[in-house]
Amino acid sequence: MKTIIEPFKIKSVEPIRSTTVPERETILRKAFYNPFLIHADDVLIDLLTDSGTSAMSSRQWAGIMDGDESYAGSRSFFRFEKTVRELTGLRHIIPTHQGRAAEKILFSIMGGAGKFIPNNTHFDTTRANVEFTGATGVDFVTEVGKKPEVRADFKGNMDIEALEAFIKKTGPANIPLCMLTVTNNSGGGQPVSMKNIRETKAMLKRYGIPLFLDACRFAENAYFIKLREPGYEKVSVRDIAKEMFSYADGCTMSAKKDALVNIGGFLAMNDDALAVKSRNLLIVTEGFPTYGGLAGRDLEAIAQGLDEILEEDYLRYRIRSVEYLGEKFTAIGIPIVQPPGGHAIYIDAKALLPLIPQHEYPGQAVVVELYRAGGIRCVEIGSVMFGKYDPIDGRLQSPPMELVRLAIPRRVYTQSHIDYVVEATIEVFQRRNELRGLRIVAEPPALRHFTARFEEV
Ligand SMILES: Cc1ncc(COP(=O)(O)O)c(C=O)c1O
Protein backbone atom coordinates (compact mmCIF):
# COMPACT_ATOMS: atom_id res chain seq x y z
CA MET A 1 0.00 0.00 0.00
CA LYS A 2 1.28 3.47 -0.92
CA THR A 3 -1.02 5.48 1.38
CA ILE A 4 0.65 6.34 4.64
CA ILE A 5 -2.06 6.58 7.28
CA GLU A 6 -2.14 7.97 10.82
CA PRO A 7 -0.94 4.90 12.79
CA PHE A 8 -3.54 5.37 15.55
CA LYS A 9 -7.28 5.49 16.19
CA ILE A 10 -8.85 8.49 17.89
CA LYS A 11 -10.38 7.72 21.29
CA SER A 12 -10.85 11.16 22.77
CA VAL A 13 -11.55 14.35 20.85
CA GLU A 14 -11.34 18.04 21.59
CA PRO A 15 -13.62 20.40 19.64
CA ILE A 16 -12.14 23.28 17.69
CA ARG A 17 -14.11 26.42 16.91
CA SER A 18 -14.67 28.07 13.54
CA THR A 19 -14.90 31.84 13.39
CA THR A 20 -15.87 34.17 10.54
CA VAL A 21 -13.51 36.55 8.77
CA PRO A 22 -15.13 39.63 10.42
CA GLU A 23 -14.81 37.97 13.85
CA ARG A 24 -11.14 37.24 13.19
CA GLU A 25 -10.62 40.82 12.09
CA THR A 26 -11.83 42.00 15.53
CA ILE A 27 -9.77 39.31 17.32
CA LEU A 28 -6.64 40.38 15.44
CA ARG A 29 -7.16 44.02 16.34
CA LYS A 30 -7.73 43.19 20.01
CA ALA A 31 -4.59 41.00 20.01
CA PHE A 32 -2.54 43.83 18.43
CA TYR A 33 -1.76 41.55 15.46
CA ASN A 34 0.40 39.32 17.66
CA PRO A 35 -0.51 35.58 17.49
CA PHE A 36 0.76 35.03 21.05
CA LEU A 37 -1.95 37.42 22.31
CA ILE A 38 -4.83 35.53 20.65
CA HIS A 39 -6.98 33.37 22.94
CA ALA A 40 -6.43 29.71 21.95
CA ASP A 41 -10.22 29.18 21.79
CA ASP A 42 -10.26 31.59 18.85
CA VAL A 43 -7.76 29.50 16.87
CA LEU A 44 -8.99 26.81 14.49
CA ILE A 45 -5.68 25.11 13.57
CA ASP A 46 -2.85 25.88 15.97
CA LEU A 47 0.59 25.58 14.36
CA LEU A 48 2.31 27.94 16.79
CA THR A 49 4.56 25.19 18.13
CA ASP A 50 5.16 21.45 18.28
CA SER A 51 6.33 21.83 21.89
CA GLY A 52 4.09 20.43 24.61
CA THR A 53 1.22 20.14 22.15
CA SER A 54 1.37 16.38 21.42
CA ALA A 55 -1.62 14.10 21.88
CA MET A 56 -0.76 11.47 24.47
CA SER A 57 -1.60 7.81 23.88
CA SER A 58 -3.98 5.70 25.96
CA ARG A 59 -0.90 4.02 27.47
CA GLN A 60 0.56 7.37 28.47
CA TRP A 61 -2.76 8.32 30.11
CA ALA A 62 -2.71 4.98 31.89
CA GLY A 63 0.77 5.93 33.13
CA ILE A 64 -0.65 9.20 34.41
CA MET A 65 -3.07 7.24 36.62
CA ASP A 66 -0.34 4.84 37.64
CA GLY A 67 2.23 7.50 38.60
CA ASP A 68 3.86 7.09 42.00
CA GLU A 69 3.85 10.47 43.73
CA SER A 70 6.31 9.60 46.50
CA TYR A 71 8.61 12.53 47.23
CA ALA A 72 11.75 10.38 47.22
CA GLY A 73 12.56 7.14 45.43
CA SER A 74 9.36 7.04 43.38
CA ARG A 75 8.79 3.91 41.26
CA SER A 76 7.95 6.21 38.34
CA PHE A 77 11.38 7.82 38.58
CA PHE A 78 13.10 4.45 38.33
CA ARG A 79 11.05 3.53 35.25
CA PHE A 80 11.93 6.90 33.70
CA GLU A 81 15.62 6.57 34.62
CA LYS A 82 15.84 3.04 33.17
CA THR A 83 14.21 4.10 29.89
CA VAL A 84 16.44 7.14 29.42
CA ARG A 85 19.56 5.24 30.45
CA GLU A 86 18.87 2.39 28.05
CA LEU A 87 18.27 4.85 25.22
CA THR A 88 21.16 7.23 25.82
CA GLY A 89 23.69 4.97 27.52
CA LEU A 90 24.41 7.93 29.85
CA ARG A 91 25.06 7.28 33.55
CA HIS A 92 23.35 10.17 35.33
CA ILE A 93 19.73 10.98 34.48
CA ILE A 94 18.34 14.14 36.04
CA PRO A 95 14.67 15.06 35.46
CA THR A 96 13.75 18.72 34.96
CA HIS A 97 10.41 20.44 34.36
CA GLN A 98 11.35 21.26 30.75
CA GLY A 99 14.31 21.67 28.42
CA ARG A 100 15.38 25.14 29.47
CA ALA A 101 15.62 24.07 33.12
CA ALA A 102 18.19 21.46 32.05
CA GLU A 103 20.02 24.18 30.09
CA LYS A 104 19.92 26.55 33.06
CA ILE A 105 21.57 23.97 35.34
CA LEU A 106 24.17 22.88 32.78
CA PHE A 107 25.30 26.37 31.79
CA SER A 108 25.18 27.76 35.35
CA ILE A 109 27.87 25.18 36.14
CA MET A 110 29.82 25.08 32.86
CA GLY A 111 29.31 28.64 31.53
CA GLY A 112 30.53 32.01 32.82
CA ALA A 113 32.24 35.15 31.56
CA GLY A 114 34.96 34.56 28.97
CA LYS A 115 33.64 31.10 28.01
CA PHE A 116 32.34 30.11 24.56
CA ILE A 117 29.71 27.46 23.83
CA PRO A 118 29.60 26.31 20.18
CA ASN A 119 26.52 24.69 18.63
CA ASN A 120 25.30 24.01 15.10
CA THR A 121 22.60 26.61 15.87
CA HIS A 122 21.59 27.60 19.39
CA PHE A 123 17.89 27.52 20.04
CA ASP A 124 16.76 30.83 21.60
CA THR A 125 16.44 29.45 25.18
CA THR A 126 19.81 27.72 24.86
CA ARG A 127 21.48 30.92 23.76
CA ALA A 128 19.66 32.87 26.49
CA ASN A 129 20.83 30.42 29.17
CA VAL A 130 24.42 30.46 27.86
CA GLU A 131 24.51 34.24 27.70
CA PHE A 132 22.80 34.72 31.08
CA THR A 133 25.99 33.30 32.66
CA GLY A 134 28.18 35.79 30.76
CA ALA A 135 29.38 33.16 28.25
CA THR A 136 28.97 33.54 24.48
CA GLY A 137 27.01 31.19 22.23
CA VAL A 138 28.57 30.66 18.77
CA ASP A 139 26.94 28.90 15.81
CA PHE A 140 28.78 26.73 13.28
CA VAL A 141 26.08 25.25 11.09
CA THR A 142 27.38 24.21 7.67
CA GLU A 143 27.11 26.86 4.90
CA VAL A 144 24.41 24.97 3.01
CA GLY A 145 22.27 25.09 6.18
CA LYS A 146 21.99 28.85 5.74
CA LYS A 147 20.51 28.67 2.24
CA PRO A 148 16.72 28.10 2.43
CA GLU A 149 16.24 27.22 -1.24
CA VAL A 150 19.06 24.65 -1.50
CA ARG A 151 18.04 21.01 -1.04
CA ALA A 152 20.53 18.88 0.88
CA ASP A 153 20.14 15.83 3.10
CA PHE A 154 21.78 17.07 6.29
CA LYS A 155 21.52 20.83 6.48
CA GLY A 156 21.82 20.69 10.28
CA ASN A 157 25.42 19.46 10.13
CA MET A 158 28.18 21.17 12.07
CA ASP A 159 30.90 22.86 10.01
CA ILE A 160 33.67 20.89 11.70
CA GLU A 161 36.54 22.74 10.00
CA ALA A 162 35.21 26.13 11.06
CA LEU A 163 34.62 24.82 14.57
CA GLU A 164 38.16 23.45 14.80
CA ALA A 165 39.61 26.74 13.58
CA PHE A 166 37.60 28.52 16.28
CA ILE A 167 38.86 26.12 18.97
CA LYS A 168 42.47 26.74 17.90
CA LYS A 169 41.96 30.50 17.95
CA THR A 170 40.03 30.66 21.22
CA GLY A 171 41.84 27.91 23.09
CA PRO A 172 40.08 24.76 24.31
CA ALA A 173 40.34 25.94 27.93
CA ASN A 174 37.71 28.57 27.13
CA ILE A 175 35.30 26.05 25.62
CA PRO A 176 33.83 23.95 28.44
CA LEU A 177 31.52 21.96 26.13
CA CYS A 178 30.11 21.88 22.62
CA MET A 179 26.39 21.39 21.86
CA LEU A 180 24.83 19.80 18.78
CA THR A 181 21.10 20.34 18.25
CA VAL A 182 19.26 17.41 16.65
CA THR A 183 17.29 18.24 14.62
CA ASN A 184 18.38 21.85 14.18
CA ASN A 185 15.20 23.75 15.13
CA SER A 186 16.41 27.30 14.45
CA GLY A 187 17.86 26.13 11.13
CA GLY A 188 14.56 24.76 9.77
CA GLY A 189 14.30 21.44 11.67
CA GLN A 190 17.07 20.02 9.50
CA PRO A 191 18.83 16.80 10.55
CA VAL A 192 22.46 16.10 11.44
CA SER A 193 24.08 13.01 9.88
CA MET A 194 25.63 10.22 11.95
CA LYS A 195 28.92 10.84 10.16
CA ASN A 196 28.83 14.47 11.27
CA ILE A 197 28.03 13.56 14.90
CA ARG A 198 30.83 10.96 14.91
CA GLU A 199 33.38 13.29 13.33
CA THR A 200 32.42 16.24 15.52
CA LYS A 201 32.97 14.03 18.57
CA ALA A 202 36.33 12.73 17.26
CA MET A 203 37.59 16.26 16.64
CA LEU A 204 36.38 17.55 20.05
CA LYS A 205 38.02 14.59 21.77
CA ARG A 206 41.43 15.71 20.52
CA TYR A 207 40.91 18.97 22.43
CA GLY A 208 39.31 17.39 25.51
CA ILE A 209 35.98 19.17 24.92
CA PRO A 210 32.82 17.20 25.83
CA LEU A 211 29.95 16.94 23.34
CA PHE A 212 26.36 17.41 24.53
CA LEU A 213 23.34 16.78 22.33
CA ASP A 214 20.34 19.11 22.50
CA ALA A 215 18.22 16.02 21.93
CA CYS A 216 14.64 17.44 21.77
CA ARG A 217 13.97 15.86 18.36
CA PHE A 218 16.42 12.93 18.48
CA ALA A 219 13.91 10.43 17.03
CA GLU A 220 13.04 12.59 14.02
CA ASN A 221 16.78 13.03 13.44
CA ALA A 222 17.35 9.26 13.72
CA TYR A 223 14.59 8.59 11.18
CA PHE A 224 16.17 11.03 8.68
CA ILE A 225 19.45 9.13 9.10
CA LYS A 226 17.64 5.89 8.28
CA LEU A 227 16.07 7.47 5.18
CA ARG A 228 19.07 9.36 3.89
CA GLU A 229 22.41 8.09 5.16
CA PRO A 230 24.03 5.17 3.31
CA GLY A 231 24.48 2.13 5.53
CA TYR A 232 21.58 2.88 7.86
CA GLU A 233 18.66 1.76 5.66
CA LYS A 234 18.29 -1.52 7.50
CA VAL A 235 19.23 -0.38 11.01
CA SER A 236 16.32 0.12 13.44
CA VAL A 237 15.60 3.71 14.46
CA ARG A 238 16.16 2.72 18.08
CA ASP A 239 19.67 1.49 17.26
CA ILE A 240 20.35 4.62 15.22
CA ALA A 241 19.26 6.78 18.17
CA LYS A 242 21.46 4.76 20.52
CA GLU A 243 24.44 5.23 18.22
CA MET A 244 23.79 8.99 18.07
CA PHE A 245 23.84 9.16 21.88
CA SER A 246 26.92 6.91 22.07
CA TYR A 247 29.04 9.83 20.78
CA ALA A 248 27.68 12.21 23.43
CA ASP A 249 29.07 12.91 26.86
CA GLY A 250 25.71 14.28 27.90
CA CYS A 251 22.46 15.76 26.66
CA THR A 252 19.70 18.22 27.41
CA MET A 253 16.19 17.24 26.44
CA SER A 254 12.83 18.93 26.23
CA ALA A 255 10.46 15.97 26.58
CA LYS A 256 7.73 18.28 25.19
CA LYS A 257 8.90 17.28 21.70
CA ASP A 258 10.10 13.72 21.07
CA ALA A 259 8.85 12.26 24.35
CA LEU A 260 5.26 13.07 23.32
CA VAL A 261 4.31 14.77 26.60
CA ASN A 262 2.89 18.15 27.52
CA ILE A 263 5.57 18.96 30.11
CA GLY A 264 8.98 17.60 31.13
CA GLY A 265 12.65 17.33 30.29
CA PHE A 266 15.97 16.02 31.52
CA LEU A 267 19.68 16.56 31.74
CA ALA A 268 21.97 13.54 31.42
CA MET A 269 25.72 13.03 31.51
CA ASN A 270 28.57 10.63 32.26
CA ASP A 271 30.74 12.99 34.30
CA ASP A 272 30.28 12.10 37.99
CA ALA A 273 31.49 15.43 39.37
CA LEU A 274 29.25 17.39 37.00
CA ALA A 275 26.32 15.19 38.05
CA VAL A 276 26.88 15.97 41.74
CA LYS A 277 26.94 19.71 41.03
CA SER A 278 23.89 19.44 38.77
CA ARG A 279 21.85 17.56 41.38
CA ASN A 280 22.82 20.09 44.05
CA LEU A 281 21.56 22.90 41.86
CA LEU A 282 18.49 20.87 40.88
CA ILE A 283 17.47 20.65 44.54
CA VAL A 284 17.61 24.45 44.82
CA THR A 285 15.74 25.25 41.59
CA GLU A 286 13.63 22.23 40.58
CA GLY A 287 13.24 19.63 43.32
CA PHE A 288 14.56 16.39 44.74
CA PRO A 289 16.61 14.34 42.19
CA THR A 290 13.93 11.65 41.83
CA TYR A 291 11.29 14.09 40.59
CA GLY A 292 13.13 17.26 39.55
CA GLY A 293 10.20 19.62 39.05
CA LEU A 294 7.80 16.99 37.72
CA ALA A 295 5.08 14.82 39.19
CA GLY A 296 5.60 11.04 39.24
CA ARG A 297 2.83 10.74 36.65
CA ASP A 298 4.77 12.98 34.25
CA LEU A 299 7.79 10.68 34.54
CA GLU A 300 5.60 7.69 33.63
CA ALA A 301 4.23 9.50 30.58
CA ILE A 302 7.76 10.46 29.43
CA ALA A 303 9.04 6.88 29.79
CA GLN A 304 6.11 5.59 27.74
CA GLY A 305 6.45 8.40 25.17
CA LEU A 306 10.15 7.66 24.65
CA ASP A 307 9.20 4.12 23.62
CA GLU A 308 6.37 5.19 21.34
CA ILE A 309 8.38 7.87 19.53
CA LEU A 310 10.74 5.19 18.18
CA GLU A 311 7.97 3.19 16.48
CA GLU A 312 8.81 3.31 12.80
CA ASP A 313 5.19 3.43 11.62
CA TYR A 314 4.77 6.56 13.69
CA LEU A 315 7.97 8.18 12.36
CA ARG A 316 7.11 7.29 8.75
CA TYR A 317 3.74 9.00 9.16
CA ARG A 318 5.25 11.96 11.05
CA ILE A 319 8.00 12.79 8.56
CA ARG A 320 5.72 12.12 5.58
CA SER A 321 2.93 14.37 6.87
CA VAL A 322 5.30 17.33 7.27
CA GLU A 323 6.73 16.60 3.82
CA TYR A 324 3.17 16.44 2.38
CA LEU A 325 2.48 20.01 3.49
CA GLY A 326 5.85 21.10 2.07
CA GLU A 327 5.10 19.45 -1.29
CA LYS A 328 1.71 21.16 -1.55
CA PHE A 329 3.26 24.57 -0.83
CA THR A 330 6.05 23.97 -3.34
CA ALA A 331 3.55 22.93 -6.02
CA ILE A 332 1.61 26.18 -5.56
CA GLY A 333 4.80 28.23 -5.77
CA ILE A 334 5.10 29.19 -2.10
CA PRO A 335 8.82 29.48 -1.27
CA ILE A 336 9.82 27.33 1.73
CA VAL A 337 12.99 26.16 3.40
CA GLN A 338 13.94 23.05 1.41
CA PRO A 339 13.72 20.19 2.00
CA PRO A 340 10.95 20.11 4.65
CA GLY A 341 12.35 19.51 8.14
CA GLY A 342 11.10 17.08 10.75
CA HIS A 343 8.59 19.12 12.72
CA ALA A 344 7.67 22.20 10.71
CA ILE A 345 7.44 23.96 7.38
CA TYR A 346 9.15 27.34 7.15
CA ILE A 347 7.77 29.79 4.57
CA ASP A 348 10.37 32.18 3.16
CA ALA A 349 8.42 35.43 3.63
CA LYS A 350 11.12 37.62 2.09
CA ALA A 351 10.81 35.71 -1.19
CA LEU A 352 6.99 35.55 -0.95
CA LEU A 353 6.47 39.27 -0.24
CA PRO A 354 9.36 41.10 -1.93
CA LEU A 355 7.43 44.40 -1.83
CA ILE A 356 7.29 44.53 1.99
CA PRO A 357 10.63 45.75 3.39
CA GLN A 358 12.18 43.94 6.34
CA HIS A 359 11.43 46.83 8.71
CA GLU A 360 7.73 46.30 7.96
CA TYR A 361 7.98 42.64 8.97
CA PRO A 362 6.93 40.54 5.94
CA GLY A 363 6.87 37.37 8.10
CA GLN A 364 4.43 38.93 10.54
CA ALA A 365 2.27 40.01 7.58
CA VAL A 366 2.01 36.34 6.51
CA VAL A 367 1.23 35.25 10.08
CA VAL A 368 -1.57 37.83 10.34
CA GLU A 369 -3.00 36.95 6.94
CA LEU A 370 -3.06 33.18 7.62
CA TYR A 371 -5.07 33.85 10.75
CA ARG A 372 -7.37 36.27 8.94
CA ALA A 373 -7.95 33.86 6.04
CA GLY A 374 -8.33 30.61 7.93
CA GLY A 375 -8.02 30.98 11.70
CA ILE A 376 -4.57 29.34 11.46
CA ARG A 377 -1.98 30.36 14.01
CA CYS A 378 1.76 30.24 13.28
CA VAL A 379 4.82 32.27 14.22
CA GLU A 380 7.26 34.67 12.61
CA ILE A 381 10.96 33.77 12.84
CA GLY A 382 12.65 36.82 11.39
CA SER A 383 12.96 40.51 12.17
CA VAL A 384 10.28 40.42 14.88
CA MET A 385 11.94 37.56 16.76
CA PHE A 386 15.60 38.37 16.15
CA GLY A 387 15.67 42.02 15.00
CA LYS A 388 17.81 44.40 17.08
CA TYR A 389 18.08 48.20 16.98
CA ASP A 390 21.40 49.76 16.07
CA PRO A 391 22.67 51.47 19.25
CA ILE A 392 23.90 54.49 17.25
CA ASP A 393 21.23 55.31 14.68
CA GLY A 394 18.36 53.24 16.13
CA ARG A 395 17.66 51.49 12.81
CA LEU A 396 16.40 47.93 12.77
CA GLN A 397 19.10 45.34 12.10
CA SER A 398 17.41 42.34 10.53
CA PRO A 399 18.51 38.69 10.52
CA PRO A 400 19.31 37.19 7.09
CA MET A 401 16.03 35.26 6.79
CA GLU A 402 12.38 36.25 7.27
CA LEU A 403 10.64 32.95 7.96
CA VAL A 404 7.18 31.90 9.06
CA ARG A 405 7.08 28.60 10.92
CA LEU A 406 4.11 26.26 10.71
CA ALA A 407 4.97 23.68 13.38
CA ILE A 408 2.98 20.46 13.34
CA PRO A 409 1.90 19.13 16.75
CA ARG A 410 2.47 15.37 17.08
CA ARG A 411 -0.55 13.05 16.54
CA VAL A 412 -3.00 16.00 16.73
CA TYR A 413 -4.16 16.93 13.23
CA THR A 414 -5.29 14.69 10.38
CA GLN A 415 -4.67 15.06 6.67
CA SER A 416 -7.90 17.02 6.16
CA HIS A 417 -6.73 19.63 8.69
CA ILE A 418 -3.53 19.95 6.68
CA ASP A 419 -5.51 20.19 3.41
CA TYR A 420 -7.47 23.02 4.99
CA VAL A 421 -4.18 24.80 5.86
CA VAL A 422 -3.12 24.41 2.22
CA GLU A 423 -6.41 25.90 0.97
CA ALA A 424 -6.13 28.92 3.28
CA THR A 425 -2.50 29.44 2.27
CA ILE A 426 -3.44 29.38 -1.43
CA GLU A 427 -5.90 32.19 -0.70
CA VAL A 428 -3.18 34.22 1.02
CA PHE A 429 -0.80 33.49 -1.86
CA GLN A 430 -3.33 34.76 -4.42
CA ARG A 431 -3.69 38.02 -2.50
CA ARG A 432 0.04 38.39 -1.78
CA ASN A 433 0.40 41.70 -3.61
CA GLU A 434 -2.31 43.30 -1.42
CA LEU A 435 -0.75 42.27 1.91
CA ARG A 436 0.30 45.06 4.23
CA GLY A 437 3.36 45.29 6.45
CA LEU A 438 3.22 46.13 10.15
CA ARG A 439 4.82 48.54 12.55
CA ILE A 440 5.56 47.90 16.22
CA VAL A 441 3.77 50.29 18.59
CA ALA A 442 4.91 48.77 21.90
CA GLU A 443 7.57 46.20 22.81
CA PRO A 444 9.41 44.83 25.85
CA PRO A 445 13.21 45.09 26.16
CA ALA A 446 13.84 41.34 25.47
CA LEU A 447 12.12 38.42 23.66
CA ARG A 448 9.78 40.97 22.10
CA HIS A 449 7.93 38.56 19.81
CA PHE A 450 5.89 37.23 22.75
CA THR A 451 4.26 40.50 23.76
CA ALA A 452 5.00 43.19 21.14
CA ARG A 453 1.99 45.15 19.84
CA PHE A 454 1.62 45.92 16.14
CA GLU A 455 -0.56 47.94 13.80
CA GLU A 456 -0.94 47.48 10.08
CA VAL A 457 0.88 49.97 7.86
C1 LIG B 1 16.09 22.80 20.05
C2 LIG B 1 15.43 23.20 21.34
N1 LIG B 1 16.16 23.27 22.46
C3 LIG B 1 15.60 23.62 23.64
C4 LIG B 1 14.27 23.95 23.73
C5 LIG B 1 13.70 24.37 25.06
O1 LIG B 1 12.81 23.44 25.59
P1 LIG B 1 11.61 23.86 26.55
O2 LIG B 1 10.64 24.65 25.74
O3 LIG B 1 11.06 22.56 27.04
O4 LIG B 1 12.18 24.67 27.66
C6 LIG B 1 13.47 23.90 22.58
C7 LIG B 1 12.04 24.25 22.66
O5 LIG B 1 11.37 24.58 21.71
C8 LIG B 1 14.06 23.51 21.34
O6 LIG B 1 13.36 23.43 20.21
Tell me what the structure shows.
With 457 residues, the protein is an alpha/beta fold. The protein has 16 helices and 16 strands. The chain has helices at 21-30, 58-66, 75-88, 99-110, 124-132, 160-170, 194-206, 218-228, 237-246, 272-285, 296-308, 312-332, 349-352, 362-374, 383-386, 415-430, and strands spanning 45-46, 92-96, 116-119, 136-139, 178-181, 211-214, 250-254, 265-269, 344-348, 376-377, 379-381, 388-389, 396-397, 403-407, 438-442, 453-456. Strands 2-8-7-6-5 form a five-stranded mixed sheet, sandwiched between helices. Helix 8 (218-228) crosses helix 9 (237-246). The chain is globular and about 60 Å long. The mean pLDDT is 96. The structure holds pyridoxal-5'-phosphate. The site of pyridoxal-5'-phosphate (PLP) has 14 residues, from helix 4 and helix 5.
Quickly list its features:
457 residues; alpha/beta; five-stranded mixed β-sheet; globular; binds pyridoxal-5'-phosphate
Topology of helices and strands:
Elements: H1 21-30, E1 45-46, H2 58-66, H3 75-88, E2 92-96, H4 99-110, E3 116-119, H5 124-132, E4 136-139, H6 160-170, E5 178-181, H7 194-206, E6 211-214, H8 218-228, H9 237-246, E7 250-254, E8 265-269, H10 272-285, H11 296-308, H12 312-332, E9 344-348, H13 349-352, H14 362-374, E10 376-377, E11 379-381, H15 383-386, E12 388-389, E13 396-397, E14 403-407, H16 415-430, E15 438-442, E16 453-456
Parallel strand pairs: 1-10, 3-4, 5-6, 6-7
Antiparallel strand pairs: 2-8, 7-8, 9-14, 11-14, 12-13, 15-16
Bound molecules: pyridoxal-5'-phosphate.
Pyridoxal-5'-phosphate (PLP) binds at residues 51, 98-100, 123, 125-126, 181, 185, 214, 216, 254, 256, 265.
